[in-house]
Specification:
The complex is a heterodimer of chains A (231) and B (241). Chain A is mainly α. Chain A has 8 helices and no strands. Chain A has one domain. The longest helix of chain B is centred in the last third of the chain and has 44 residues. The chains are: A mainly alpha (231), B mainly alpha (241). Chains A and B meet through helix 7 and helix 8 of A and helix 4 and helix 5 of B.
Amino acid sequence: MEAFRGAGDLRAIGVILMKDLRQELRSRTVLTATVFFAAVTLVIMGFAVGGQPDVLRVVAPGVLWVALAFAGVITASQSWVNELEDGALEQLTMYPVPRATLYLGKVLANWIYLAALAILLVPVTVVLYDVQIGGRWPLLFLVLLLGTLAFSLVGTFYAALTVTLRARESLLPLLMFPIIIPALLAAVGASTELMYFADTVKAFDWLQLLVAFVLAYGVLCTAVFHFLVEE
Amino acid sequence: MASNSGKSTGTRPLWLTVLGFVTLAAFLVGAWYALVMAPTEVTQQELFRITYTHASVAAVALAATILTAVFGAMVLWRGKPIDDVRTVAAAEVTTVFLAVTVIGGMIYSKPTLGAYWAWDARITLSGIMLVLMVGYFVVRGMIGDPLRAARVSAVVALIVAAGAPLNRAATSMFRTVHPARSADMPAELQFVLIINMVAALLVFAWFFLERARLGAIEARLEAEREGLEAGSSSVKEVVNV
């Protein structure tokens, strides 16, 4: 198992992160692929559940997180597909830093995309689904950050596995969604407490689970990542 | 080719055959106790009898996901071919046990909770674990190189087992309509449950050992075949004739 050797590895994570962000700023592939997709998901789900105000308010947190989970698949997949061109991935793995730095850099980049998307989608959800957030928005912000980090940790990990396989588009959600069920339940649970029941105490219970998920998979995925990209 | 050593002839060792019959006996005794000897339960009547099998299989199935991950960790740690054989064997039997748990749970759920799938915490947990274990085989099947398939699927086995406690916490916070735990049972019924628990463990152990034995033979055969293909052309000709 490769150990972290301090500052040099942190710099490598930062370099990967900046590279991915710069690439995204120039191409805007993730942005165009996820923002409209997620927004359309919110609209179509509004139609699908029938448009009654009381039903809409109940389902709003769930719909928001489903849209984010789908977007999470796209961002995670895209960040590795980018590296397939011109043998970029092989080049990256040849640097004398632990492979996990590659993973963590991409986790951070995908987290930034997803968290930004989540913050964009909340006002859309408030308008379309008529939910009340009131003074509970700092806590909701925390839930959005942790939930998207959980999705990014698992998505980036599995996307590295599926990117070289034939049926990667269908395989990634198939593998990723069952794993993120606890994070999805916790994120939806916390959001529902905040957006519907206005119960911050219960939201904290769900938040603890979300933190446990992030810690457990953060450590495990980082520890075993180098087995996925050996070749 | 078949007779270079006693090991590759593939006869089942005597102790494993004996264990098979012990397992069968334990299963029959367990079923007899559950269906005939156990007194009828007060509230759920005859329906309660499914608990003895269902709870036993469920407990073994969840523990077996951990066992699969332990073998998976062995693959990553030392990477001997036998480790992969054991991981696959454990994963296959675990998947069957999880499937039986889910099916048994649904049969039990319809008359007691009113629906085959009542989104109850513990059945949902088994369902999620079943889907996760299927992911192990999906990954395995997609990767051509056997060495890489072994290592990557071992990673999946670890990830799956790590999800078990989190899923347990999440599903129990999500919803719990499951019948009470076995600790509330009278001692008489607990005894029947313990017999069935032992039977379920034995069934798992026997399936696992037999599957691992067959897997080891398969792996040895594969290695021999590759050795022949890599060998000189004269060897190839001999095999082709």
